[in-house]
Amino acid sequence: MATMAAASSHLFYNNGISSKFNKSSITLKQSSFYHKNCRNFRTHLVVKASSSDNNDTKNGRKQVELVYNLDEKLNRLADEVDMNAGLSRLSLFSPCKINVFLRITNKRPDGFHDLASLFHVISLGDKIKFSLSPSKTTDRLSTNVPGIPLDERNLIIKALNLYRKKTGSDKFFWVHVDKKVPTGAGLGGGSSNAATALWAANQFSGCLATEQELQEWSGEIGSDVPFFFSNGAAYCTGRGEVVQDIPSPVPFDLPMVLIKPPEACSTAEVYKRFRLDVSSTADPLALLEKISKNGISQDVCINDLEPPAFEVLPSLKRLKQRIVAAGRGKYDAVFMSGSGSTIVGVGSADPPQFLYDEEDYKDVFLSEANFITRTENQWYQEPSSSNTTSFVDQSSYAA
Q1: At residue 42, does pLDDT exceed 70?
Q2: pLDDT digit string, tens, across residues 330-373
Q3: How far is 29 from 90, CA to CA, in rounded Å?
Q4: Reduced to 3 states, what is the DSSP secondary structure of residue 164?
C-alpha cells in the first residue's frame, strides 16, 4: 500500500494524463474530454508479488510491482467517449462587417429597399461564450455593456428560439457576450451575434442543420444575418439576404481605422430621408469589378445612405469632411458603413490627430481593423491582438 500511495503521488495531467512509475509508463490518448474529465476515470491495476532476492524479501516483506496494461483499452475508450460525449461549452468570435460600397437600387412594394453591396467581414468582433443550461425553458444572457436588451428583443435570443423552432432541439443556454463592437454603428454587430448563436446551437446539437439551412433560416431574424454564413466576402442583393460568395477582392493586410461618434443613426430615420431620384447611378457590378482589378479607391466606395444619414446627424458629415482633410491623402478611401454612424478610413490604421486633441471627440470610438474571411465548415477565428486594437473604448455601446 505504501508503494501504491507513492506511485499515486506521481499522477498528473496536462493535455492528457501521464502516469509514471519505476518500471512502467502510461500516456492516455490526448483528448479534450480526458483533459476536462480525467477525475472520472479509474485505472485498472494488476498487482504482482515478487520474490526477488533483495533486502525487502530478506526482511520478510514482498515487493509489490504495479503493472499497467491499458494502452489499447483506454484508447478504445477514448474514441468511444469522444464520440458520445456532448458539447457543454463553446467560445466563439463574432466579427462585424463593413459595406465597401452600398447602392440602393429600388424601392419595393413591401416598403423595403433593394440594395446591391459588397459586404466584407473585418477583424473587430465580440467574444461570445455559450454553456448548456440545466433549464429546459429559458436561455440566460449577460454582457459586459449596460443598456443591451437581455430578453427576446436581443437577436441572440431570437436566434436560439428560431433554431429550436426549426430543429425541435430542447437545448437552452447560458450566454455571455464580451462586447467590442459598438451598436448603432452600421457594422452589423447584432446580426453577427445572431449568426454566431445559430452556429453555436447547431454545434451543441450535433449539426442537425446544414450551413445552407442556417443561412436560409437566419433571414427571418434580419436582412444582414445571412451574410455571416458566407465565407466573409459577398455581393449581397435583395434586402441584403441574397448572398453571393465571392473571393475576397481586397488584401487581408490592408489596414483601416473605424471611427464612430457616440451618436447612433436610426436606420428607419435614414431610409425615411432617402431619395432614389438623387442617389448614385453607378452600376454596382461595375464597382465590384473595379475593386477586384484595382483595389479600393474613393470613387468606388459609394454609399447611397450617406446623404440621408448626414441629414439625420449633421455632425457626422462634418466628421467625415475633417477626416478626409486631416488625412492628407493617407487614406485610400473614407466612407460611411451601412446606415452609419461609423466612418471607415481604408489604407491606414492611424486616426487623425484631431480626434485625440479636441474635447468634442473625447467619446469617439476608434479601432483599427483588417479584412478577414473564414474556412468552410469552421466559424470565424479571432485574429491576433496585433491586428485589432481598440484605441478608445468609450460609451458607444448604448442600445
Answers
A1: no
A2: 999 999 999 999 999 999 999 999 999 999 999 999 999 999 99
A3: 22
A4: helix
Catalytic residue among 139, 224, 304, 332: 224
Let me know if residue 237 belongs to a domain: yes
Query: What is the CATH number for 323?
Result: 3.30.230.10
Neighbours of 20 (CB within 10 A): 12
Give the three-state DSSP class for 305.
coil
Question: Helix, strand, or coil here: 121?
Answer: strand
CB 84 within 8 A of CB 76: no
Q: How confident is the model at residue 153 (pLDDT cuts 50, 70, 90)?
A: very high
Minimal CA–CA distance to 284: which of 132, 38, 117?
Answer: 117
Q: How far apart are CA 14 and CA 27, in angstroms?
A: 11
Query: Which residue in the block uniquely carries the three cell numbers 465565407?
Result: 231
DSSP 8-class letter at 35:
H
> Residue with C-alpha cell 463574432?
94
3 state DSSP class of 230: coil
293 is catalytic: no
Q: What are phi and psi of 97, to 5 degrees?
A: -140, 165
Question: Into how many domains does the chain fold?
Answer: 1
Strands of the chain, DSSP E: 12-13, 17-20, 25-27, 46-50, 63-67, 89-107, 113-132, 140-143, 173-178, 233-237, 242-245, 256-260, 333-336, 343-346, 365-369, 390-392
* Least confident window among 62-66, 175-179, 293-297: 62-66
Report if residue 55 sits inside a domain.
Answer: no
Q: Model-level pTM?
A: 0.77
Average pLDDT, the chain: 82
360 given a catalytic annotation: no
Q: Does some domain include residue 229? A: yes
State the cell numbers at 312.
439625420
Residue 126 included in any domain: yes
Rounded-to-integer distance, Cα 8 and Cα 239, Å:
64
Domain holding 98, by residue range, is 89-370
- Cα(238)–Cα(163) distance, rounded to whole angstroms? 24
C-alpha cell of residue 205 = 446539437
- What would the pLDDT profile of 86-124 be if each residue is shown by its tens digit? 789 999 999 999 999 999 999 988 888 999 999 999 999
